[in-house]
Amino acid sequence: MSGRRSVAFFCVLLLTMVLASTIQSAWGQEVTAAIVGTVADSSGAPIKGAKVTATDTQRGTVYQSETNDSGSYDINRIPVGTYELKVVA
Fold it and tell me: Whole-angstrom Cα distance, residue 1 to residue 4?
């Protein structure tokens, strides 16, 4: 009977170790990014309400944002890649 308990304990321990190692590696896989910035005129004054468009050059996906009172914008949680930015005010 003690032989079965030892085998069962070993199986549970092994399964726990395997699960713990896969969870750890999953946390390290970040596949999103953010584009942040500030839009200002030639004198350095912030531009409120400017439309900022980021286009993924490989996929053609378009992401949009608008500047706030301080001219800042952010486009969060987008796939890592190369983007073309366009600002219209």
Answer: 5
CA distance 50 to 74: 12
Please give the sequence-ordered ranges of beta strands (E in DSSP) within the chain, or none if there are none.
32-38, 51-56, 62-66, 72-79, 83-88
Q: Is 68 helix (H, G, I), strand (E, B) or coil?
A: coil
C-alpha distance from residue 70 to each of 7, 36, 37, 38, 47 (Å)? 65, 13, 11, 8, 7
Q: Which helix (H) or strand (E) holds 24?
A: helix 2-27
Neighbours of 83 (CB within 10 A): 19
Q: What pTM did the predictor assign?
A: 0.66
CB-facing half-sphere around the CA of 61: CA atoms within 13 A: 9
The predicted-structure confidence for 20-73, as pLDDT tens digits, reads as follows: 666 655 556 668 999 999 999 999 999 999 999 999 999 999 999 999 999 999
